[in-house]
Request: fold
Amino acid sequence: MKGINVGLIGWGTVGSGVVKILQENGPLIERRLGSKIALKRIADIDLETERAVKVSRDVLTERAEEVIEDPEIDIVLELIGGEEPARSYILEAFRRGKHVVTANKALLATHLDELCRVAQQCNVDLNFEAAVGGGIPIIRVLKEGFVAERIETIFGILNGTSNYILSTMSNEGGEFTEVLRQAQAKGYAEVDPRLDIEGIDAAHKLAILIKLAFGAKVPFEDIFIEGISDITPLDIQFGREFGYKIKLLAIAKTDGETIEARVHPTMLSSDHLLSTVDGVFNAIFLKGNAVGETLFFGQGAGMMPTGSAVVGDLIELSRNILKGTRERVPILSFQRADVKEMKVKDIEDIIRPYYMRFSALDRPGVLSKISGVLGKNDISIASVIQKGRGVSEAVPVVIMTHEARERNVRRALREIDEMDVILDRTTLIRVEDELS
Reply:
């Protein structure tokens, strides 16, 4: 039976995981596939750094073109990340009749439509399980396991770095900057952590999930994104008193002809399963109209979990090659012609309960002034915590609201923050009482 030849572009952390799995699990893979997978070529600009796996020097090259142009290679694995040259490499691989596996969420978030179109024109396949959730097979779930479902809601903890920081602050204490340094020392955060802590990485993954779950075209720039760097131990403490934990949540909901698409710190009920997901783990909560509520949990990054997802995609494409078929499952889950443009709901139009922490002078009448402005803007107070420490210093006044429209909330906070008794910008965190 025909063997499958594979070329790898990008021999970094995930690439090393792929090689390790192919080496260690080769006999198992052959028994399941019925054919051998041969790693014929590996391209990387750095071939001198010591890797976690050993390969023959004969398969190594510094030129990605040697992988793409090799007529014997059936499948190209793109694991270099970033938009360019990854996009150009993938498109050229398509044009040369090669199937592609990628883990490149930033590229897919902005160029998935183009990549899908060219893949179809060239009669090849594109798989990208590892782009969302690391070792969690959520892409395959949406494309195959839940193919009969009308997905209504997605809630995801999609970034391990942010989840590690927030759960460590919650469980062990510490300021944000201190815990971020710990995460960097342990290798959980990059030297430049902005993509993670500002919510951009999670938004990339959410953009991919929206397309597969809802069959919707949503421009990445329309997703509302807010990071975690303003979260303080005080907010975590007050959240606990109200019965909540703070998570960086990626949220997508259908609402008639519009979609809510947002990434931001969120207060979740402490007894919800998502609130128990700590450390660098990821979790994705889906609600379908038939299956109801489901939760998928696992390691969202790392050499071996992400490498496993890449190899899973590789085996799926190898099966297609051996059976002489392609696009057995549509790349976008829906038929490409049926992926529709949908409007993203403006963040100011969402209706949620809110947590507000005011830094106020401890004087009589302050709470009544704040509540007066909230009431004027149709915002109803559910609970209040007010802690006094003396007339001359700021004290926290914490309010939990009933459901309110964000436009009204922002308007009220602009007025409140101008008061002479308010000494700092108000902290606002959205609340998800019921994940539905």
